[in-house]
Each structure stands twice: as structure tokens, then as C-alpha cells.
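Subject: Siderophore achromobactin ABC transporter, ATPase component

B.,
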Amino acid sequence: MEKPVETLPLAVRDLTLSYGANNVVHHVSLDIARGGVTVLVGGNGCGKSTLLKACARLLRPVEGSVLLDGRAIQRLSTAQVARELAILPQTPLSPEGITVFELVRLGRYPHQSWRQQWSRQDQETLARVLHDTGLEACAHLPVDALSGGQRQRAWIAMTLAQDTGILLLDEPTTYLDLAYQIEVLDLLRELNQRHGKTIVMVLHDLNLAARYAHHMIAMRQGRVHAQGRPADVMTATTVEAVFGLRSRIIEDPVTGTPLCVPIGRVPASGLG
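Prediction pasted inline below.
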């Protein structure tokens, strides 16, 4: 049952999205819980990244709406949205030679105006964000000189500098090795727990999704196939339907969350 939209930081109602003449998301409705970590999973081309873009007002719906604190996001100004919601795309590109401090400072742009270019609050926010992300010692280094994990922390720090209650992240662990993936996801969990950030992210790794999510949404062919607690969503039946993969689901011996052990692809004739 859908909750009243005014109580939700972000809600999607009967949303259809397209690129050109091709609809890629079909009549999706979602409730995003305040202060939770929601993770979107699904096969390539299922619409999860497209849905995230629409939630950030980067893509106009064909039908339906995205509601930000109960208000239609398309009716809000860019500045209003940027003060309440920050998005980190999958492969962000930084200007050559830009330092960590300069990159993170860009996150304060939505709070600037011709009357107020920089304030004490801006300076305090940057100091706090650099501390929270462990980047104080790297602040004056070029972003290009950082390790993969540090570079992703810098981009996350920029989104945090926007000082929004909602963070949207599209594959924040892309191209990172396992150690850096855990580092970045641990950071996001800490931000959620310490500062109450509402986090919505797309992840490809099912086991990491189940470990870090409060709420999982599994998408298939542009529709929500299943959603709920990781233990309810990550079942052998759902994995087969969404990924075309036979598997066993066991308990992670470290976290107690569901752990997917792949067995093999389902023959093409067995896919619905």
C-alpha cells in the first residue's frame, strides 16, 4: 500500500520513461523511505539507471510523476532540487588538474547567489565533508593523482557538500577493486547512520546490495519485479527471473544477509 507522498522524501507514481520512441521504464511506482538505504538491482538495460535519472529530474517522464517531499519535481526550479537532492552519475569526469578541494567546493554551488558568493557556512561544510570522507590530507592534491577509492570518495564528498538530505548514486563502485568497493560502501553506510542521509543507489553486485540495503528493488524489463527487505527479494526464484541465473541463496556468515551462490545460466528457452 502506497504511503502519503507528503511523508516521503521521494516517491514515484505510475512513471513511464523513454529514450526517443522506446519506452524503457513502464508504469513504475515506488516509495523511498526517509533515512534508509535503497538499492536498485537488475540486469543490463532493465531501466534502473534511467529511473535514477528521472528521480533527479534529469529525464522528463512520458507519463506519471516523481515527487520530492510531496511536490512534483518537474515543477521545482533547478536550484530547489539541487538544495534537496544530490546525484552522482556512474562515470563522472573532472576538469584536468582540478584539486580535491576545488572539486568538493563545486558542491556548494546551489547555495551561492550573486549576493553571497562564499560564506562561513560554506567553509564549515567543506571542512566537515573533507573530514567525514577522510580526505583532509588530500585536499590540495589533483583528483587525477588519487587512487580509485580516494577519487570516488572525492566525488561523494562533492555530493555531500550540497548538504542535501537525499543522495542518488549510480554504480558508485564501478571500476573499483573489491577493497575499494567495501571502502566506499562502508562510507555511505556511515553517512546514512551518522547523518540520517536517505540514500538510493544502483549496484550490480547482488551480494553487496543485500549487505548494505535496507530496501531492495529488483527490476526486469523496465518494471519492478520485486521489492522489500533483502531477505524477501533475494530468492532463487527472483534471481532466476531477473538475471536468468540459477542459484542457491545462503546466509552470509559475516553479516547474516542473503548471499547468492551462482550455479549457471538458465537456458534461453526457460526464460519468460
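The chain has one domain: 8-260.

T.
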